[in-house]
Amino acid sequence: MGEGPHRFRYAGWPHEAVDLVEESIRVHGGWEEWKRLEVITIEPAWLRGLLPALKGRGRTFGLPRKFELRPHRDVALFESFPDQDTTGLYEGGVVSLIDAKTTETLIGSVDHRKTFAGRARRRRWTPLDALFFFGYALLHDHSIPFTLGEAGFAGMERVRFRGEGLVALALDFPPERQTHSRRQTFYFGPEALVRRHDYVAEVVSPRARCAHFRNDYEMVGGFKFAMKRRVTARLWDTPLPITVLDAAFRSIDVA
């Protein structure tokens, strides 16, 4: 399939999968609006669950006052992180803490993903660790479904979940995409909104299989964003009653 009106070639994708993602893009806000978007500003309400508790939430790192995401540049700023005098900067896998007044870099790490190799995955997170994990996660999560076409098609099926018919689309992301894992599965509801997102949080553990549920969608500046997120552990395709992460946003703005 040629590029036509699409941003991606969708090489090797069946027409049905292309149509699904293109409809999801339209429902979430549309190509033209996405291309014009520069920044997504998020004020968090809470962050809780097993993962933040185990990794140091409230001890080695806190909740930023505000997130500023620039998805087209792969940049995220964490305001007042890990304290009010410091700003966290995530940029394409590079993380650093910056003096909020002088903009001087206080500490940084290039290609921080490599620091999670082997037993290091078990460690309690430093502010740089939390900045890396939540930086790439927020950026990729808020780029979905607009970036799905960069991935390779791996499978598609119709499933029933909690009594509702969904379409599951399995994709393989390229190595240059900073995200949880190469293989990820997205579940679309009848209205083409992304309802669920399955992946392996590899920087936590190669066995950290997760099901990420998007709830309470709201229209913000022409885009639909889920204001609440709940991540549970997963056994194969089955979500388990173990809340790995529970997050909510107080507000989202776009510019």
Please give a structural write-up.
This protein is of the alpha+beta class. It has a single domain (15-254), classed as Lipoprotein localisation LolA/LolB/LppX (outer membrane lipoprotein receptor (LolB), chain A). The chain is 16% helix and 43% strand. The protein has 4 helices and 13 strands. It has helices spanning 15-28, 31-36, 50-55, 127-141, and strands at residues 40-48, 66-70, 75-79, 86-91, 94-99, 105-109, 152-161, 164-172, 183-188, 194-200, 209-220, 223-235, 238-254. The chain is globular, with a radius of gyration of 18 Å. The two termini are 33 Å apart.
Whole-number average pLDDT?
94
Largest sheet: 13 strands, antiparallel
Broad CATH class: Mainly Beta
CATH topology: outer membrane lipoprotein receptor (LolB), chain A
The count of domains is 1
Name given to the CATH architecture = Clam
Helix and strand succession?
A: HHEHEEEEEHEEEEEEE
CATH homologous superfamily, by name? Answer: Lipoprotein localisation LolA/LolB/LppX
Radius of gyration: 18 Å
- The total beta strand count reads 13
